[in-house]
């Protein structure tokens, strides 16, 4: 998916994390549910000025790998990124106004920063509150010389909540990021949060909305605030399709973003 925390959360929703209870919640005394492996492919586009005079465009295609056991959810996202414009890309947070600007404002493309995460189903439930504890690491696999990343390792710790009320599933998360700084990029640690809900329109289709906030990443920058509307559809028990539209409300967010994802469960 795209490089924002919001889009990563929606990607997990598209992979079935919030639309259905975790495997542990479906466990009975007599049986243990099998583990699940999911593979997804995402395509995303965003555009914004991020405080610069000109816009920065980001095109991303990504491979998502998910493994879920009764208590754990392991995830990896491998993106390929194309960027045009002055803003520097920070995986997990999106492009930012950073000094210096990208060395070349023309199109640059290459492997993005690979992200891995592990979630523990602390409170799995089919009819109560679900709580997940998640740790995420962003590895500096992108080309720093092209402005596709900062060249540093970042860490994220967050707690996710969701509960299903019939056809409605409210969800939310609160997290803290630890961003690696370098002599070239001085970045700030800070909190981020998401709140939203999924509405099941029909048995295989859901409509969702997400509101996302992130504290400023660069000194003197703005806090990010954006909202996302997304649709998920399960044409079969194994396939899931998702599409979204994102709108930002500060210079720290994209002006607009669109994307989609298709995933398959083995």
Please sum up the structure shown.
By secondary structure, the protein is mostly beta strands.
Major beta sheet summary: 12 strands, antiparallel, barrel
Per DSSP E runs of 2 or more residues, the count of β-strands stands at 15
Cross-sheet strand order for the largest sheet: 1-2-3-7-8-9-10-11-12-13-14-15
Contiguous helical run count: 1
Spans where pLDDT lies below 50 across 5 or more residues: 17-32
Portion in beta strands: over 45%
| Mean residue pLDDT | 84
Helicity level: under 10%
SSE string:
HEEEEEEEEEEEEEEE
Shape, please?
A: globular
Q: Roughly how many Å apart are the termini? A: 20 Å
Key features?
mainly beta, 1 helix, twelve-stranded antiparallel β-barrel
Q: Would you kindly provide a written description of the structure presented here, covering whatever features stand out?
A:
The chain has 266 residues and is mostly beta strands. The chain contains 1 helix and 15 strands. It has one helix spanning 5-14, and strands at residues 36-48, 56-68, 72-84, 88-90, 94-96, 108-111, 115-123, 130-138, 154-162, 168-178, 190-202, 205-214, 224-233, 239-248, 256-265. Strands 1-2-3-7-8-9-10-11-12-13-14-15 form a 12-stranded antiparallel beta barrel. It has a two-stranded antiparallel sheet with strand order 4-5. The longest helix has 10 residues, at 5-14. It is globular and about 50 Å long. The chain starts with a helix and ends with a strand. Mean pLDDT is 84; it is low at 17-32.
